[in-house]
User: What shape does this take?
Amino acid sequence: MYYQRLDVRRAILDFANTGGSRGVRECAFYNQKTKSLQRYLDANQRTPICFEEPTDIDRVLAAGASAFYASYWRYYLDDFNNPIGIDLVWTIRAESSGLKFAKEATSWVLQALEAAGVSEPWVKYSGGLGFDLVIPLETVPFEAWAGDVGVLQEMQEGLTSYIVSYLVDHQADVLVDGVVSPVKLKRGKETCLLSELRVKRGLLLAPMSLNPETGLVSVTINPKRLDGFTVWHASPEDARGVVWAPPSRESYELLRQIRPWLPEAMAAETSVF
Assistant: This one.
């Protein structure tokens, strides 16, 4: 069975557990029996789901799990009403085109992020018609946001503006429709949607989980090898993802590059970096 693979379990557990330094993640699973997303193992007791040990995976598999999710929000213990941080997450999804254009668009966004000082964000295939990009909270210098989640959201807006400007300057054959999320990227009849994920208690399909709609693996990808990715790499039999390692250091270069795109007050605060 796919979820008995040690590398798959490790990928799910590593993402679900942040080590506690910047909070914990809320977890959930897609219940194949009820065809619904389930945030609590026991609906009556409303006990939060956590994926800390392999036995936690076994427990929800026995309950009917076919896909695993973890929040891109961070919380203190199980207080899910008061987030203490957030990863910066974007999705690139094909609307009126196939995966090929979504892959191209993702490559452009990666180039923009590299120019902004983020050389290797986390990248994974969605298991459908797109990709997910994650700048983990640990990348952002704590001094720049000092525990204020609103500042992180403003920073993500600034990065989206930076990406839009980069694409306008470097992709002449692409029409960029919009300056704030969601942004449409158009080339002829091909269209992709670039969107920020910021919904409170929002969940992201865990790396190496199966997509409940397609059955393909939401496989993690080396950003430098995205061009060679095909859906064959996402089959449960063949999927082999890269390790999503925590960043080795915070990115002060990111703040320097996007400062012109930040709200005036925040840009002033980050001018010391």
Notes: The chain has two domains: 2-83+199-234, 94-119+139-196+248-272. Residues 149-170 form the longest helix (22 residues).
